Amino acid sequence: MALLSQRSVEDAARIVNIPARTLYRWLKEPEFNAAYRGARRDAFSQSVARLQQMSAAAVSTLGKIMVDANAPAASRVRAADSVLDHAAKAIEIEDLEARLAALEGSAEGTKP
User: Fold this and answer.
1) Quick one: DSSP state of residue 18?
2) Which of 37, 97, 108, 112 would suit a FRET pair with 62, their CA atoms being 20 to 30 Å apart?
3) pLDDT of 27-48, one tens digit each?
């Protein structure tokens, strides 16, 4: 937990009252390093989930600004550009997922 919450290995070591060289040595041990990477992944996953929860509000905000005649033109254009950019990226991701599923199906000898 100290490694996840502190800015440096040295700070993390100080928090748990061990020499920094000990913590660096532990990080080189495959089992410890794997556990640390897993904890980092879990923490990041929680952040991604939070972003996904906030995405509906973000889209709503972009939409409101985009159609608000009282908003500055530059803001409306930027919101419209952002909506179009994200929509295009979503289509690209969907297409890639479909292609990947087809390739996986071919590799397994089944149809997607």
Assistant:
1) S
2) 97
3) 999 999 999 999 999 988 988 8
Q: Looking at the chain, how many residues does it have?
A: 112
Residue 69 amino acid letter? A
Euclidean distance between CA atoms 77 and 86, whole angstroms: 14
Q: Is the dihedral of CA 75, 81, 84, 88 positive or negative?
A: negative
Cα separation, 75 vs 38, whole angstroms? 40
Measured N-to-C along each axis, helices 30-67 and 73-108 cross at an angle, to the nearest 10 degrees, of 130
What's the count of helices (H) and strands (E) in the chain, helices before strands? Answer: 5, 0
| Cα 7 to Cα 51: distance, rounded to the nearest angstrom | 23
Amino acid letter at 27? L
Rg (CA), the chain: 23
